[in-house]
Amino acid sequence: MSRLLIRNGRVVDPSQAIDQDMDVLLVDGLVEAVGAGLDVSADTPVLEASGHVVAPGFIDLAAHLCEPGYEHKETIATGCLAAVAGGFTAVCSTADTDPVNDDPSVTRFIREQAEDVDLARVFPLGAVTRNLNGEELAEIGEMTREGIVAVGDAGRPITNSLLMRRALEYARSFDIPVAVHPEDPGLSDRGLMHESAVSTRIGLRGMPSAAETVVIARDLALANATRGRLHIRHVSTAAGFALIRTAKDDGVRVTCDVAPYSFCLTDEDVAGATYDPNWKTNPPMRSAEDVDAVKQALRDGTVDAIVSDHQPHHQDDKELDFSEAPFGIVGLETTVSLAIDRLLRTEVLDFARLVQLLSTGPAQTFRLPGGSLKRGEPGDVTILDLDHRTTVDPARFQSKSRNTPFGGWELSGAPVATIVGGRIVWHVQD
Amino acid sequence: MPIESAEALTGKDVVGIAQLDPGEIQLILNTAGELLEVAKRPIKKVPALRGATVVNLFMEASTRTRFSFEVAEKRLSADTLNFSASSSSVSKGETLVDTARNLMAMAPDYIVIRHPNVGAPHRLAEVVPASIINAGDGINEHPTQALLDAFTMRQRFGRLEGLKVVIAGDIRHSRVARSNAFLLNKMGAEVRFAAPASLLPVEVEDLGVETHLRLEPALEGADVVMMLRIQLERQGAVNFPSLREYYDFFALTEDRLALAAPDAVVMHPGPMNRGVEIDSLVADGERSLILNQVTNGVAVRMAILYLLAGGRGESTADS
Amino acid sequence: MTIDGVSRSGLVQIMDEQGMEFTIARMAAQIVERDGGDIMLVGIHTRGIPLADRLAARIAETTGSEVTVGRLDITLYRDDVGPWRPAHKQPVLKDTVLPKSIDNRIVYLVDDVLYTGRTIRAALGTMIDYGRTRAVRLAVLVDRGHRELPIAADVVGKTVATSRSEDVQVHLREVDGDDGVWIGAGEEAEDAD
């Protein structure tokens, strides 16, 4: 019988509308009780949490764990370590491994690796199409038997509209969502950053907002027609949120997430970075108006989750020039701090809403266990210290990769302890 | 309440279940019942359609259905002529109606037509005086199949009303599923389609069927389980990923059949893909009526030929 | 064969219930006398069937052993079915049940009225497709003459002279609720059993 008492923290659990100083008792890996002054035996281990925020464990709906196939960038072990260091108790791994996770044997490999590592929980995402080819369905049913929670072709857009429709229909038999990267590659036209006066000024090819919004419109229409479950990843445009907001009002089964660079950085920041590929993301960092729209959407419920969109790249890859370098930045170890510093402190969001976006919302979106401290839920807890000041130092990341634009940022508020299944897997000792 | 049989068919053709009313369906089934025993006699022939000419115009590959029609025609002593897609002049660019008019110059009494295009039999029926029997038009209807399926169910259960019938497979492209749904609804049975949504027609519930996206919930308490042949489309795995996955989740195995009613039966229009949509153990098991369907098919087709006959001479009352 | 649906007024009864009982008894005796009890009776739809049943019962009383009874639908062998009917107005088919093989048996066809003989010709055609009998004989309740084919009955209940415009009605309790035979003037109905 393993026990852990988290004492006297400020418990914020949107699933029970709790925001109050309380104790949380975990027994045998599950939540046993939440209440003020819980009475426990003298030999129960105690984690003092006064002055800290105690939340149901944070869940990341999209992180590239790179194993199998790209172990030079990240492994499941290092990725899970980065996750718990960043306050995440669970991570959904994307399907763009090598071999692609389009087959139950790959799904099983990922799951078993994560179980061996025994840090964060890993819920694999399966591919929509075979080998991410965008033309033929992958064995979605077989993969559900090995534990995928959703399907998505990672960062590859599905340009074949009929296939997208059939995927939404077919996935209904297994009641899982189809997660899409909303981009029309034809319209992106090899763009490297957001298309605007800024891209014109600094001479980089631009990706128009329309490249994102036309696909969001298409996929919402298909989700409506097929009654399938649609999840739109890393939405970054004001127009995109407007479409999603309306669709949700109309009862379309759609959810969406945003990545931190979409509420922290703009195209001007890309311009200011003198063509440093650590600012190269897809979707790109957009205009200030778009960032405002992201914050509004986070506030008003249009967005269901904040994700890390963790995309490790090896040093060598990011030493390429801006055109040649791959898109993507790491995020597991910066997302939570950025969210606290840039959304909570600035009063864009209140605490309940923040925890909703990092825990309860993601759990509901992919119907995962957790996201709640109700009795019987997994004993996954994230403990935050709002006064803990950190400076982002990529050299000290647990992740194998260092590609981030946030190096040197001073942030107030960080995860200080991460508990998975009643066990403390990460603990910052002051 | 059992449906009263009509006294005669109202039209000169059988082009679809959509055009038949329940009384006519009952008449066809009753007549087929009486014609079944012709196959059991030493001499499997009756002279009823002696001298009638039937053209089998099969513009789409089929051995089984055409064979079944031929046997039915010959057992009624009619003369048969066979035209198939490759041997006919249609492949040389002649229109369907021209082909039919040329055939009509030889004065056939019936044309049994199977065609890849929806509505071809209906067009012919308007244009030629022969009785047109639809042996399958594209993905639209296959009325004689639905009639023989219904006959088989009624033969086993004594009724159609209230039967719970599951049809599973590629419903969207299945004329067998459509004709069966039309017929069973008209006769008061309950129809359940089971298929992933990518294989279901849009808003098919409007046809009066229940839809299930997995097979197991559809099977609960079902009396009849009809499996349709599944194959990968020409353009590859767009509607479902692979035959292996289809088998794992949507095939009729013994375990799944056990979810149906204790005396449930198994049917299949054929030809079967063993190990894809149906296990051999189930297809060959004691609950399978698949071979009965074939036998009944001849009797049902004989019944339609018999009921559509006439109009070329004076009737004499006899005693 | 009788024509249904004709008015009962102007009909003369030529056999009553008791008369029918005696007649059937005599017919049964004639059959046994000629062929013994080892015969098969095959009733022709519709009223030939209860007649065959009654004859079988009488014969069984006399011989002490059961007589095999079958039933025959001759519709498919009629000379006016198929192309000669009005379009798509084929007569409704009824059931044919021969409980045992007819090979090498003596089979009595049983019908209520013998008229033109076409029904019996069709019945013979049907029988031939079922096997090879030792002999086929005919027993009818009423022979009203006007043969159009060379057919004769072996056992006749009553011979009645009729004109073509007249109509002979046979009622059997099992089908009509009463027993009796009537003659009257009547229109020829279009269709008959």
Q: Give a quick account of the main beta sheet of chain A: strands, pairing sense, barrel closure.
A: 8 strands, mixed
What sequence of helices (H) and strands (E) makes up the elements of chain C? EHEHEEHEEEHE
Termini separation of chain A (Å)? 29 Å
Shape of chain C: globular
Structural class of chain A: alpha/beta
How would you classify the helix and strand content of chain C by structural class?
A: alpha/beta
Radius of gyration of chain A: 20 Å
Average predicted local confidence, pLDDT of chain C: 89
Q: Could you explain the architecture of this structure?
A:
The complex is a heterotrimer of chains A (430), B (319) and C (193). Chain A is an alpha/beta fold and 430 residues long. Chain A is built from 14 helices and 18 strands. In chain A, α4 links the parallel β9 (150-152) and β10 (178-180). In chain A, α7 runs parallel beside α8 (238-249). The mean pLDDT of chain A is 96. With 319 residues, chain B is α/β, with parallel strands linked by helices. Helix content of chain B is 34%, strand content 14%. In chain B, the strands form 2 sheets. A 5-stranded parallel β-sheet of chain B has the order 7-6-5-8-9. In chain B, α6 (175-186) links the parallel β5 and β6 (190-194). Helix content of chain C is 26%, strand content 26%. Chain C is built from 4 helices and 8 strands. The longest helix of chain C has 19 residues, at 17-35. Residues 189-193 of chain C have low confidence and may be disordered. Classes of the chains: A alpha/beta (430), B alpha/beta (319), C alpha/beta (193). Chains in contact: A-B, B-C. At the B-C interface, α1 and α11 of B face α3 of C.
Quick description:
The complex is a heterotrimer of chains A (430), B (319) and C (193). With 430 residues, chain A is of the alpha/beta class.
What secondary-structure arrangement, pairings included, does this model have?
The complex is a heterotrimer of chains A (430), B (319) and C (193).
Chain A: E1 3-13, E2 18-27, E3 30-35, E4 46-48, E5 53-56, E6 58-63, H1 76-85, E7 88-93, H2 104-117, E8 121-126, H3 140-145, E9 150-152, H4 161-171, E10 178-180, H5 185-188, E11 193-194, H6 197-202, E12 206-207, H7 209-226, E13 230-232, H8 238-249, E14 254-258, H9 261-264, H10 267-272, H11 288-300, E15 305-306, H12 315-318, H13 335-344, H14 351-365, E16 381-391, E17 410-420, E18 423-427
Parallel strand pairs in A: 1-4, 1-5, 6-7, 7-8, 8-9, 9-10, 10-13, 11-12, 13-14, 14-15
Antiparallel strand pairs in A: 1-2, 2-3, 5-16, 16-17, 17-18
Helix pairs in contact in A: 4-7, 7-8
Chain B: H1 22-35, E1 53-58, H2 64-75, E2 79-84, H3 96-104, E3 110-115, H4 120-127, E4 131-137, H5 143-157, E5 164-168, H6 175-186, E6 190-194, E7 210-212, H7 215-219, E8 224-227, H8 243-250, H9 254-257, E9 265-267, H10 280-283, H11 290-308
Parallel strand pairs in B: 1-2, 1-3, 3-4, 5-6, 5-8, 6-7, 8-9
Helix pairs in contact in B: 1-5, 1-11, 2-11, 3-4, 5-6, 5-11
Chain C: E1 11-15, H1 17-35, E2 40-44, H2 48-63, E3 68-72, E4 106-114, H3 118-128, E5 135-143, E6 155-159, E7 166-171, H4 173-176, E8 180-185
Parallel strand pairs in C: 2-3, 2-4, 4-5, 5-6
Antiparallel strand pairs in C: 1-8, 7-8
Helix pairs in contact in C: 1-2
